Amino acid sequence: MPTDERYARAALTRILEPGDEHGGRWLRRLGPVELLTRLTTRTGQDPELAGVSPRRLEGLRARAAVARPEADLAAVAACGGRFVVPGDPEWPSQLDHLGDTRPLGLWVRGGPDLRHWALRSVALVGARACTPYGAHVAAGLATGLAERGWVVVSGAAYGIDGAAHRGALAAGGATVAVLACGVDVPYPRGHAALVERIAEQGLIVAELPPGDHPTRSRFVLRNRVIAALTRGTVVVEAEYRSGSLVTARHAQRLGRFTMGVPGPVTSGLSAGVHELLRGDALLVTDAAEIAEHVGDMGDLAPRRRGPLLPRDLLAPTAARVLDALPSPGTTATVTDLARAAGTSVDETLGRLYELHSLGHVERHGAAWALAPRAARRPNARRGGA
After folding, report:
1. In this protein, which residues make up the domain named Smf/DprA SLOG (predicted)?
2. How confident is the model at residue 42 (pLDDT cuts 50, 70, 90)?
3. Where are the alpha helices (DSSP H) in 91-215?
């Protein structure tokens, strides 16, 4: 891309708010250089910049008058970063799915290639004021995903975001923090050390230029980038009104996998996740299940089942005969057991000797009873669940 177009996009990140659909439409029609020219050299109404009020347009022109893209590009280079724009080899093409709300460009800190990492990435998001359960689950999921070669993407906020980043870092894995401020702004301040560690081991990404600070609306708009950048979004804990649910809904609209981790039904922090799960979201409980959804063919989670009991190894007829035996302490004849099991006397007798050799039953003359050890086992006596 010509240098002047890169400079124009860098300047526009100072002028237009992230996700500005009007600005995205202008950019698509005019290109970055012509759009910047119209904002910096013209006054009054401009038919090519329709869709906003005169006051709003004047506000954009006031921002354009003080934009200094050279200074911003120098600032990001000074902190070891770069400005990635559409058309660059490092640009993640999946961001183009956002249409006119696509980022103008991305300010990036860290050594790895953003496009390559984004191809195999999963977003882990959730409540800032999370519970110990939520933090534990988020860290475990991130660690498991990192060990499987997946990049963990989150927003570097307190709570679930921080736990997800730390879980990936602890496993020596890859993680990306998408910020709602400049890549050189430590926000939240309590995560300054974490953000620096992510910059050293992973990537810091932002739509806003260096030095810019977050606002409430920018946090919400940032979530669309997290959703578009990744192959799927996992929500660990979220209330009904949560920015994490915004990320999940963006992912659904973009055709990405949307997943949720269930929590206690008595917890308000799980209410939003459960609402997602009642819809189209997929229930996941560990990294293997996440990888099964977002991964390639063959990435199957192991089959879940309870402990294997001796009774589980019995043939169906032997199991029916065992179920036919009466309560512990009482006996039954072979004829009674055959009638209860729905099989012949000879077949019942053969199964009883088999059960006797396995320690399930005892013989008392012509009658049979449950062995004391078998009577104590779950499912070993008649009527067991």
Report:
1. 83-294
2. confident
3. 114-118, 132-147, 160-170, 192-201
